[in-house]
Amino acid sequence: MTGPNIDTSSLENYIKTYVSLSEDEILALNSLVQYRKIKKNQYLLHEGGIAAMSSYVVSGCLRTYITDNKGIEHILGFPTPGWWTGNLQNFYNDKPSQLNIQAIFDTEILFFTKETKEKLFLSGAVFERYFRILTERSLIDFQARTLEILSLSAEERYWKFYNKYPDLMLKLPQKYIAGYIGVTPEFLSKMKSNGLRKP
Predict the structure, then answer these.
(1) Residue 4 — pLDDT band, cuts 50, 70, 90?
(2) How confident is the model at residue 199 (pLDDT cuts 50, 70, 90)?
(3) Is 33 in contact with 112 (CB distance < 8 Å)?
(4) Residue 156: which of 122, 181, 126 has the closest Cα?
(5) CA torsion angle for 40, 45, 49, 52 (degrees, to 10)?
(6) What per-residue string of b and e applies to 109-134 under the rule 16 or more CB within 10 Å gives b?
(7) Chain segment 151-186, per-residue pLDDT in tens
(8) What is the DSSP annotation of 95-155?
(9) Burial (0-12, 13-18, 19+ Cβ within 10 Å), 35
(10) Contacts of the segment 159-166: beta carbons below 8 A, 24+ positions apart
(11) 92: pLDDT confidence band, cut at 50, 70 and 90?
């Protein structure tokens, strides 16, 4: 779905926290952005697929994960409202995705295809600036996540998760929390039964 019937206010407000938008730029945004609803357990992107979309989460929650050659899922993140998600290699290089992006709850997104994103950039340099800032922030988050995996204990990663996603702690299945902090569900249960000491 695209056009004036889409409520883009949350996206507009989010963009405005980084850059100023003119009325013409808001009109361009509204004319190019598309809307999609993803039901619980449905996939926005499946491993091996090519679905070049840059997606902004309006409501709900997704999980981004990969599956290793032993069939174990490793969760990279939980895009929630106000987050962008997608696969950059898939989006820019038309490569089959190595990632899976699945809705944990019913989720609504606003998204751009490769074509509509290029049109957005042509409509105003402000959008190129905004997405540059977004990419820089994503790289910072990626580095922080990598360092977290390499340098912190499982218990420390648990509390990092707790601080990052406090609202999700009571909603997510334990297997998803385990997949994010890099342990098995059984190991997480054992950690919790032994008492987790908050730092």
Answers:
(1) very low
(2) low
(3) yes
(4) 181
(5) 140
(6) bbbbeeebbeebbebbebbeebbeeb
(7) 999 999 999 888 888 888 889 999 999 999 999 888
(8) PPPS-EEEESS-EEEEEEEHHHHHHHHHH-HHHHHHHHHHHHHHHHHHHHHHHHHHHS-HH
(9) middle
(10) 159/196, 159/198, 159/199, 165/78, 165/80
(11) low
- Write out the two tokens for 24: 């013409």
Token readout for 152 is 């912190």
Hunting for tokens 């540059």 — which residue is that? Answer: 132
How are strands ordered across the β-sheet holding 84-85? 34-38, 107-113, 53-59, 84-85
* Residue 45 zone, left/alpha/beta (φ > 0; ψ -120 to 50; rest): beta
Residue 110 has pLDDT above 60, yes or no: yes
Query: What is the share, in percent, of the chain residues with pLDDT greater than 90?
Result: 53
Domains in the chain with CATH codes: 9-126 (2.60.120.10)
The letter for the amino acid at 98 is: Q
pLDDT digits (tens, 9 = 90+) for 33-70: 999 999 999 999 888 777 778 899 999 999 999 998 88
CA nearest neighbour of 179 among 25, 64, 85, 99: 64
Whole-number Å distance between alpha carbons of 102 and 46: 8
> Given a cut of 50, is residue 80 above it in pLDDT?
yes
